[in-house]
Fold this sequence. Notes:
Elements: H1 9-21, H2 28-34, H3 54-67, E1 71-76, E2 79-84, H4 88-93, H5 96-163
Antiparallel strand pairs: 1-2
Amino acid sequence: MKEFNKSDIEALDFIIDQCLKTSFSVSADDLIKSGHIKLTDEKGYGTLTPDFDASKEFTRYLGILKKYELCKCNSTKDGEFASANSNTLNFQKQGGFKALYKDLKDKRNRDKLEFEKSKVDLELSKETLKEFPKTRKRAKWAIIISGIAIFLQLIEWIVKLMSS
């Protein structure tokens, strides 16, 4: 999975910060030492899920960074590492993953609103098409009645002219 959750923001921003602060690569151990990848719960017990692996979690973070082209992601026999690339500093200056998350959330909300608007527009179009034949009949009758009224007014005017 290459998407990130709100809970991933701190760890991802930490990786970005460390890539920029140090000239060295960031590894899973750095996230464990900083507490961004926890191997124990609040009471000091091992992780609650037995299949949890810190390197898998770090690999997931690297996948996210790679997707947005924010870091160089390297794999060696010693493990996987992230280091800064030309996009890293600019991304951090723009607010990092916190700002990206907010932008994605805003976009998702806009898309949801546009979808709702499209549904309403579709319903309105269906209603309009359903009402169109009735409206057309009413318009025909209105034209006929208007024509008769104009004709009667014309006759009345002609009669008035002839009598005077």
